[in-house]
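Re-run with default settings, no changes from the original entry. Doing this only to confirm the output is reproducible before filing.
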Amino acid sequence: MSKIGLEISETPRDVAFCSHAITKPDELTEVVDASIDDRFKNNPLVIEDPKIRFYAGKPLRTPDGYALGTLCVIGTEPKTLTQTQKKALDHLADLAMRLIDERINSPVAVIGRAVESQFPLGILLTDASKTDNPIIYCNRGFEKMTGYTQAEIIDRNCRFLQGKDTQTDTVELMRTAIAENRAIVVIVKNYRKDGSEFWCELTLSPVYDGNGKVIRYLGIQDDVTQRVTAQQALEDSHNELKREAKQREETELKSQHLQDELVHLGRVSTMAQMATGLAHEINQPLMAISQSAYSAQRIAQGAETIDSIMIECLEDIQSETQRAGDIIRTLRRLIRRDNPQKSKVNINNIAEQAIRLLKRDPRAHNIDIAVNSGNIPPVWADRVQIAQVLLNLLRNSIDSMSTVTNTDSKGDEITVTTLQQNDMVHVIVHDNGPGISPDVSLFKSFETTKDDGLGIGLSISRSIIELHHGKIWHDESTESGCSMVFTLPVDSPTA
């Protein structure tokens, strides 16, 4: 048997690695972990130093089929060869056999010439005894793979093949393996002499002398660019499919949203048709009520005993009937998209009138409603429509505060503040109620938090304000309660 640096000169045949490998002349024998393999666990080289764990051997056969021995590699750690490593061992076994057949004095030179001319993989050998671990040998396969000549390669460290996109973490893994004197297999991006990239699978293995000292590193490189490119293309295709699936999902959501909007538009159209008919039908009895109230008022005034309370009630009936008629006419104009009936309007007066009207609401009896009137100019607006907006905001505040118990020591409060900023009048309705939930979509038709609400009040209010070239919004900067703001342009017939 041949050996390199092993003290034991003989091994019992029944537990010897090579005696098993040689019986399979056409196969490569691989033992991943000899310590748990029943065939070799009692081998002295497994039990004692060097405590072999890994073995791979290929029989050396003469041209007539006679097996002379094996070309093998051993290791002290469990291991499994890659396909590239197996191909390399097979090829080296063939080359070794040719060396024996040629019976020359320099077997290394013969193997070198065979590797130079036939081996498709890149092979290099480095000097581990020198500081920078320089390359001392490379085959033609390595030259072809990198584009460099042997003269340009020898005495250089392998890092000259690295470039801007070489993985730093992979390089660090290789450095760590060399520092720890152990083999490693990595896939790394390198660069040819012409600057083109290529991916190589590098198998780097330490070579020991008879004293167990690492004196060389053997590197075998296989160009796996096609394999890596195919894997990347597969990943890109998978990512593209995921992106298309996401786009398809977003498109379906948009389509569903559009369908919902179309359904909503149909509801709005139906409501508009119903509202037009209802406005016409309701307007008739309101006119009759107004005329009857006026007649009753005249009769009461001509009576011998004048009942002032009755007369005041009749005046209220007539006034409220008139206002109801104005609101219905305004609603009809909104539905028909008629222009507002604008004139000079004092917002402070509208606010005070709205508050006087709301104080008759039983829910507002315990609420302090006040106007903080600013020194503002008149606005060019439809008085009835603006009153409708203000009443809607005030009623929303009353409804909000009536649903909870206010723990504020001041009690329930609503304040209407008017002020001027540049050419716009601002109207702010603030209450100290529970505020508005962030989940509520304000100004969206048919969305309401009230059990008996229709969800159209704020939507109509926004339409009115926008027809007046103003804006309406919820002031989210308010720390407590709720603040609704709308703006109107100052007195201007062109507004």
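The first helix runs from residue 17 to 21. The first strand starts at residue 29 and ends at 31.
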